[in-house]
Amino acid sequence: MPKDHLITSENDIGIELEDSGEGCDTRNGKPTSGRKRRRRRENKKEKKKDEGRGSRNAQHAVDSGESTEKERQRKRRKDREEKAEHVQSLDKSKVNNRDFAAKNKKNLKNEKTRSKGRPKREVEEGEAKQPQRKGCAKTEENEQDTCERAGKKKGKKKHRKKVETSSEQESSEDGDKEGEGEDEEVEEEVEEVEKEVRPETLTPEELEKLKEAVDDKKKLIQALRGKPWPMKKKHSTLRESQEFLEKYEGALGKGKGRKLYAYKVMMNKKWMKFKRDFENFTTACIPWEMKIKEIESHFGSSVASYFIFLRWMYGINMILFGLTFGLVMVPEALMGRPYGSMPRKTVPRAEETNAMDFAVLWDFGGYAQYSVLFYGYYNSQRAIGWLKFRMPLSYFLVGVGTVAYSYMVVIRKMARNANETGGGDENSFNFSWKTFTSWDYLIGNPETADNKFASITTSFKEAILEEQESRKDDNIHLTRFLRVLANFLVLCCLAGSGYLIYFVVRRSQKFALEGFENHTWWERNEVNMVMSLLGMFCPMLFDVISALENYHPRVALQWQLGRIFALFLGNLYTFIIALMDEINLKRKEEDVVQFNMTMWEASLHNNTTSDNSTAPPLFTHPADVPRGPCWETMVGQEFVRLIISDTMTTYITLLIGDFLRAVLVRFLNYCWCWDLEAGFPSYSEFDVSGNVLGLIFNQGMIWMGAFYAPCLPALNVLRLHVSMYLQCWAVMCCNVPQERVFKASGSNNFYMAMLLVILFLSTLPAIYTIVTIPPSFDCGPFSGKARMFDVIQETLESDFPAWISKVFSYAANPGLVLPFMLLMVLAIYYLQSTSKSYKEANVELKKKLQMQNEENKKKNKRAALKAAMELEEARKAPFPRVAEQSYNPSHQHRRHDMADSPAGSFSSDQGRNGDDQAPFTDCRRSQPVKASASSHGRHANQGAPAGYPAGHPRQSEPARLQRVASTQRR
Amino acid sequence: MQALPHRMISWLHGRYRELAPHLVPLDYTNNPDIKLPLSLLVSMPELKENPFRDRIVQTFSEDGQGDLSFNDFVDMFSALCESSSRELKTRYAFKIYDFNRDNFICKEDLEKTINKLTKGELTPEEVTLVCDKAIEEADLDGDSKLSFADFENMISKAPDFLSTFHVRI
Question: Residue A550: which region, alpha, beta or left (left: phi > 0; alpha: psi -120 to 50)?
């Protein structure tokens, strides 16, 4: 079945092309003899085809295109010897019934001959024509009987002629019934003959020829790809030449190569498939990718950017969790001394009764407080377990490491984002690409299709918004004034709330000194209430104010984020102040306890000595031993409680504010006096700025508290995980997209910058407490040391050889550190300035490029107009001029350059050659219109079916020349 | 090399026959002059969700009405398959988007395309804006419609045309 080749042959083209890309230049081999043979061959083919076409013509007799083609063919036939025969056979064949396979094949060939026969033959330069012609010639050769193969060329030719003519006559005579059958036989014969070809039987001369032919075939295949024919024609041609290639490449001593080639093809396909599968696999491995894509398609990239940010934070927290869990919590739980072995690892007697109550545990008291979750539980023993795990050192290094890692990751991410935004934002075809390439033809699933529709609409809206924003130019002075005014108002707001916070905090400190008991509930909770009220109303106020500014929504979001960020800094400030106060309080308490402890120990000692000096020391249960308040655990607890309450608030507001509202609006709408959905309450929009800031501040808390509560990263991972699902669900089910969907990059550096600031701010207090406050005397891994970082020195002294600690002490010398820091500052300054200059150069170049593009476009337009006018003139003017123009060799040459240059370099060509090329291109482009306009009478053999795009260079050239030829003839 | 095409063809034949088992014979060796109507073809899962399904089928049908013979059917899938060349795809994409078949993508065609892509969710003003912008971007010769050369130039620079303009078979 000829059809079997249709698809693979096509598949093979691509690969073939890659392999045989460097084909040879032998295509101008021997055109004259080739032409003769080709004619004969064509006649033969045509005859077959005409038979094939018969029934079709009958079917579409009304079709004018077909009839003109027929006419054309008849005309062509007049030039030939076998004309009469053909007409006869054509007429006969009309009545014919067709075998499917044969018909198909013939149709293919027929179409091929029809559409390109005439013009191709007349113009020698037609690119792919010669190889094709050659190919035909070669196949004919194959048709020769085997005995002739060894003979000389001349003899062959003669003999061939005879054979062919006779066979043609035969076939045309016994015509209709046997026609196709015979053709098939011939084909089979050919194949058999080809199979028998052995390289040994060929003379060197023939080998040469064969090689030439093979190369020609390769050329043809290459050119075929660019042919504007329908697939059928391509396939038939391709099939022929590929069969040929397969047969003869092997015969030419490339037998091994052929196997290798097949192997290569197979491997290539497998590799492609593997790559695709792997790609799918990797995308499937990215967590929540589909969810985020779905949200992005419905809510735009700004909402998606929040979720991408959330996912990124989740990743970071996973790492932090791994560090603290693997290097601190697990070793202590497995190898440290068990619960109840020491006072710090035991619940005190006073709390024992309700240590297991849920309320206490929920507050992270009781058993939760005396567990690996908090700083106080850890022992100061230098090495634990059979691994000799250095617990205190590990604790310290993990604490420092988490912060250092976070810095590194944030900064690296920022740098990468900057790179991404810096490079390649080629959106010169933004709208056209969106229009023509955004639909994914692979989509076969209704849900995916819905998402795709939504995402395309959203992306269009985003692009339209950008366009409108760029077009907007109102009164610049008014806008400026309004912006200044808005900023002034916001500053007033911030200053006011700052003072309010300061005032309230001072007041509460005073209350705390006096004791909370004799104050009202409001006075006790004043700070919290003020903070949450500010947090609730100020963003709304900012939102209203920002309406004045008339910014692009993306910029507006950034301003909004910055302002709320400044507001929340007050929150942070109050929290830290309160914490420091409490730490100081605890430390005072600790001093008292320490004093009591010594008294208690002394009394214990006295008791034992008074009783019996040799008696074993009195055993007191660890739960009964008095202990210090352990401020580190207290700090850790504060943070954990804060995170928990924050999470709860977020979820509850989500459920009430979004879900309940959506439900009410949805169902009360049936029985309400106004339209709830379109009117006042409506559905909520997703609050990007609030959520992003919540996430960032939450992370700040984690960084601050992770040193004192190793469980914090674990809690945060849990929280982020839940909120990912909960928020995804809430967005999809209760929110509506923003009115102005705008484009935000998925990796937003603005978020990152805020995160960096928060990271810095939150490491400050942590480092301050670590460096300046001495650790508690009876809890935690650093108990008994003057400062927490002494653990480093201790390790250096006892675990490393002496010279290392010496080197370390030298390196820590200010005389070395200061110059080093100076050097670093200088290096940073240098790099900064070079990168700045690069950036400037980049911007400059981009501008230039854009200007040039625009200029080219303008030139093009002008040239097009000019060319159109010239063409009009040329039409009216006498023909010789036209002929001369088009046969001008230099023109022709240039034209070829154009046709050969890949489509991608089209505009760049124009850019280089500037004006003089442009008129030609336009001429070429506008030509087909003219041709088609006048094609009905004179030269319908351009052969373009209805709806055929006419502008293609390779097609239009023969057409144009054909036109010239016909005018000359006239 | 022979095994795959055969499999492909018979698979395609299976798909073709699936659409109308009572019309399409199992044996295609003789007299198979059968065409399936557009309404049947666009119900294929590969085309069902495509907003341009009617245009695709019409483009590949010989008479432009959307009735495909098995030949046309194979043509369609081989043009839309992953390994067909960029140029071929460009050509057929142009035909598909050229709704009124005047060999130019004019404003009308663009409007239809956009409305199909967005299910008519954009306001008429927005659609006009997009059309104007698209033509402004891609039109090289200033005739305010896209010829094939304009289209080809534009699409050749598109990053994901090749990856999206194919069906999986």
Answer: left
Mutate to test the interface with B, among A435, A451, A459, A469 (most CBs of B within 10 A): A435
pLDDT (tens digit per residue) in A670-704: 888 888 877 777 888 888 888 998 899 999 999 99
Touching check for A6 and chain B: CB below 8 Å?
Answer: yes
Place of tokens 């939760």: A368
Give yes or no for a contact between A431 and B137, defined as CB atoms under 8 angstroms apart.
Answer: yes
CA atoms within 13 A on the CB side of A719: 25
Mean pLDDT across the stretch A269-296? 86
Judge whether A706 and A321 are in contact, CB under 8 Å. Answer: no
Nearest-angstrom CA–CA distance, A49 and A53: 6
Chain B residues with CB-CB distance to A952 below 8 A: 91, 148-149, 152
User: How far is B10 from chain A, CA to nearest CA, in Å?
Assistant: 9
Interface with chain A: mutation pick from B88, B99, B168, highest number of A CBs within 10 Å: B88
Each residue of A919-953: pLDDT tens digit?
A: 443 444 444 444 444 434 344 344 334 334 433 44
Element (H, E) at A548: helix A526-549
Q: To which residue do tokens 């509850």 refer?
A: A652
Chain B, nearest residue to A455 by Cα: B118
Is A537's Cβ below 8 Å from some Cβ in B? no
Q: Cβ distance A541 to A562 under 8 Å? A: no
Interface test with A, best of B1, B59, B151 (most A CBs within 10 A): B1
In this structure, the number of other CB atoms found within 10 A of the CB of residue A834 comes to 10
Per DSSP, the three-state class of B69 is strand
Q: Which of A151, A274, A278 is nearest to A203 (CA)?
A: A151
Q: CA A352, CA A623: separation in Å to the nearest integer?
A: 9
Assembly ipTM: 0.90
Which residue is closest to A222 within chain B, CA to CA? Answer: B85
CA distances from A916 to A891, A907, A922 (A): 11, 14, 11
